[in-house]
Write a structure and sequence with these properties.
The protein is mainly α. The protein contains 28 helices and no strands. The protein is elongated and about 170 Å long. This is Exocyst complex component 3.
Length: about 750
């Protein structure tokens, strides 16, 4: 079956080869001109065939050589295995023949063991008899501080005891009686070891002091510990071989030394707290500063002095650095878990996040390069930091709310004083409120900046948010101040001056907020700050606008009797009402000069507008109806003159603030022209001109104006109004409507007014 398969495979291979050859020949002879190259193709293929056959023969020959070598090596290995088998048979035969001989040597073996034990006893005999004396000498040396000599004698005693115990163990490991006997005899030696250890640990505890005063003593302690470490290693190696280890081994004094150093460091860190919150409000600042100083001094002493007293493989500086870091971490976590006040949280976080790695402590140049601050782990976890920050922000929020309330209440008490408020260097009235508020914000931002940029931004945002709430209360307080004043205008005595100060404070608040943001905000587009700032500006503008309105109300309450004289018979005959109005306004504006420029400008324009509105209202009230042309001429000229008075007054008042007051008084002049007109046939034209200039004028305004003229019949009024209604006017885009604020009373209202 296998031969058939092989034959079938060969046949298939031949077929594939023939098919491939036919395909290649067909590819070569595709054109007639290629028939001339048949012989060339045949020679090339023959060369290729010869080359392939040569490589194939070489490969087969190499395989055959390898197989031949392998067979030769297998044959040699077989011969070696047979030789080893014969040798093992001979060894087994010799071993069986020597069993009886070994059993006969058992007595010799026991004698050798006994001889070894006796030799050890003889060798240590002198030490055994002198144990009490050596113990006393060792104790004296320990008390005298001769630690190296004391340890040398202790080592001799331990060596004698350990050798005797080892020989006893070899002879009879189960004989506990003899072992106990040796142990009891050398019992004082264990006390000596413990006493010596106490001396060593005292030196280790005071190593930072000892290394300055007597470094030799510290070196002696380290040498003793190194000796004990070597003995421990030797005893442990012997235990692996024999199973015996002397009592008290391994002592692990090196491990104990580092444990004592660790406890010493922890005690030193915890022992720096000298005060409590009850005795000193700055207890934490003082505590942290002492820790900083102690740790830096200790690490510098370790680097410069202690390192020289310890072998390099102790890596004493790195280990002490780790101990201090761990002790500090534990202490900081303990402090973080206490119920800290806001200023204490700031002190702790500033120390942990900044001071610890600064040049004042771990980043000190004298500690480099051994201390890499970038490789130091955080003293407290991020979670603990976040909790402290959250608690700080919560406490700070409550504090700021309380501070702002107190500041506002204090400021409101100042408003009712009988003395004028203080003025700044430019003479503008102000109170201390903005300075107090922003001094508080500034202090908290400076504190937050010491901790992190993120906290600084959060505190700034908090200040702006609380400023929103504060200004709402400030606005309510100013409104209540005005209402209380209206109940008795004689009180408070300095109402106008303090209302001016409130207005000026709004501008100061704006400037202070911009200054704070510029100083403490890197990115002007920080999320939340822009919207808060915009809201604050809106509220401040409202407070200032309401304050200005309150002051103007105060002015117009004084002007009311004089405004009521306008457009009356008394006015026509000769009245100084407008003169009094101008004097009163100017007098008030002498005080208003203490208002800062942006608000003063708006206030001047508003005062001008309200005076003109009140004047036009007086016309529309129809208090007078001119009887003839002479009265109309006299009244119109008086109106034009008074318009010039108003124009001059407000131009003078606006000179310092830049307000535009030219157009308002022209309305009075335009109305005067309508009244002055002598030819009734031109009345429609004059009125239409007035309407085209001031398109918000209504029919009732025109009717009232014609009524004041006194010569227009009802039909004429109706005709003029209907004709004007049919027409269309193109208002001036810069015109600010004024007539929409002016109402014309009906006849019943007029009777009631009379």
């Amino acid at each position: 079956y296998n031969s058939d398969a092989i034959c079938y495979t060969f046949v298939e291979t031949d077929r594939e080869a023939v098919a491939t050859a036919v395909q290649r020949v067909a590819g070569m002879l595709q054109r007639p001109d290629q028939l001339d190259k048949v012989e060339q193709y045949r020679r090339r293929e023959a060369r290729k065939k010869a080359s392939v056959e040569a490589r194939l023969k070489a490969a087969i020959q190499s395989q055959l050589d390898g197989v031949r070598t392998g067979l030769s090596q297998l044959h040699n290995a077989l011969n070696d295995v047979k030789d080893i088998q014969r040798s093992l048979i001979d060894v087994n035969k010799d071993w069986r023949q020597s069993i009886n001989t070994i059993e006969n040597l058992k007595d010799v073996k026991d004698a050798v063991v006994q001889h070894s034990q006796l030799a050890a006893a003889v060798e240590n005999l002198k030490n055994i008899f002198s144990v009490p004396e050596i113990v006393r000498e060792t104790q004296d040396l320990t008390e005298q501080g001769e630690l190296l000599q004391a340890h040398r004698k202790l080592m001799d005693l331990e060596c004698s005891r350990d050798d005797l115990m080892y020989e006893q163990y070899r002879m009879d490991s189960k004989n506990t009686h003899d072992m106990n006997l040796i142990h009891i005899y050398f019992g004082d030696m264990q006390k000596l070891s413990e006493e010596l250890a106490k001396q060593l640990w005292m030196v280790v505890q005071r190593s930072l002091v000892t290394v300055r005063r007597d470094p030799t003593l510290l070196v002696s302690v380290v040498r003793i510990i190194e000796r004990e470490e070597k003995i421990d290693r030797r005893m442990l190696d012997r235990k692996k071989q024999t199973g015996f280890i002397p009592p008290g081994r391994p002592k692990k004094w090196k491990e104990k030394m580092f444990a004592i150093l660790d406890r010493t460091v922890t005690t030193r860190i915890e022992g720096t707290q000298a005060d409590t919150r009850e005795s000193d409000k700055m207890w934490l600042v003082r505590h942290l500063e002492i820790i900083r100083k102690y740790v830096l001094d200790d690490l510098l002493v370790t680097k410069n002095l202690m390192v020289q007293c310890f072998p390099p493989h102790y890596d004493i500086f790195k280990k002490l650095l780790s101990m201090y870091h761990q002790a500090l971490s534990t202490r900081m976590q303990d402090l973080a878990s206490e119920d800290l006040e806001a200023n204490e949280i700031v002190s702790l976080l500033t120390w942990v996040l900044n001071t610890y790695k600064s040049t004042e402590m771990m980043g000190n140049s004298e500690l480099a390069p051994e201390v890499d601050v970038n490789s130091l782990n955080p003293l407290i976890s991020q979670n603990a930091v976040d909790q402290l920050l959250s608690k700080y922000m919560s406490t700070l929020t409550s504090n700021i709310i309380g501070w702002l309330r107190k500041a506002l209440e204090t400021d409101k008490k100042d408003w009712i004083k009988e003395t004028e408020p203080e003025a700044d260097q430019d003479g503008y009235y102000q109170t201390t409120l903005p300075a107090i508020v922003f001094q508080m914000f500034e202090q908290n931002l400076q504190v937050a900046a010491q901790i992190s940029e993120d906290l600084k931004t959060k505190v700034l945002l908090l200040c702006l948010q609380q400023m929103n709430s504060f200004l709402t209360r400030y606005k309510e307080g100013a409104q209540l101040y005005k209402e209380e004043h209206l109940k008795n205008r004689q009180h408070p005595q300095c109402y106008v001056q303090y209302m001016i100060a409130v207005i000026n404070n709004c501008q100061t608040f704006k400037e202070s907020i911009i200054s704070l943001k510029r100083k403490y905000l890197k990115n002007e587009m920080e999320e939340g700050t822009s919207s808060s700032h915009a809201n604050i500006d809106v509220i401040l503008d409202i407070i200032a606008k309401e304050g200005c309105s309150s002051l103007l109300d105060e002015v117009f309450m004084d002007l009311e009797p004089h405004l009521n004289e306008l457009m009356t018979k008394k006015w026509l005959i000769g009245s100084n009402a407008v003169d009094t109005i101008c004097v009163t306004v100017e007098d008030y504006f002498n005080d208003f000069a203490r208002i800062k420029k942006p608000y003063k400008k708006k206030m001047t324009v508003e005062a001008h507008r309200r005076v003109v509105v009140e004047y036009i209202k007086a016309i529309m009230l129809k208090r007078i109806s001119f009887k003839n042309a002479d009265e109309r001429k006299e009244g119109a000229e008086r109106m034009a003159k008074e318009a010039d008075q108003f124009r001059f007054l407000f131009k003078k008042l606006a000179a310092g603030s830049g307000g535009d007051t030219e157009g308002l008084c022209d309305i009075i002049v335009a109305i005067a022209e309508v009244i002055k007109l002598t030819d009734p046939s031109l009345l429609y034209l004059e009125v239409s001109t007035l309407v085209s200039k001031y398109p918000d004028i209504r029919d009732d305004h025109i009717a009232a104006l014609l009524t004041v003229r006194g010569d227009a019949s009802r039909d004429m009024k109706q005709t003029i109004i209907e004709t004007l209604d049919q027409g269309s006017s193109q208002p001036n885009p810069n015109y600010v409507p004024i007539f929409k604020e002016i109402t014309v009373p009906t006849l019943s209202v007029q009777k009631r007014l009379k």
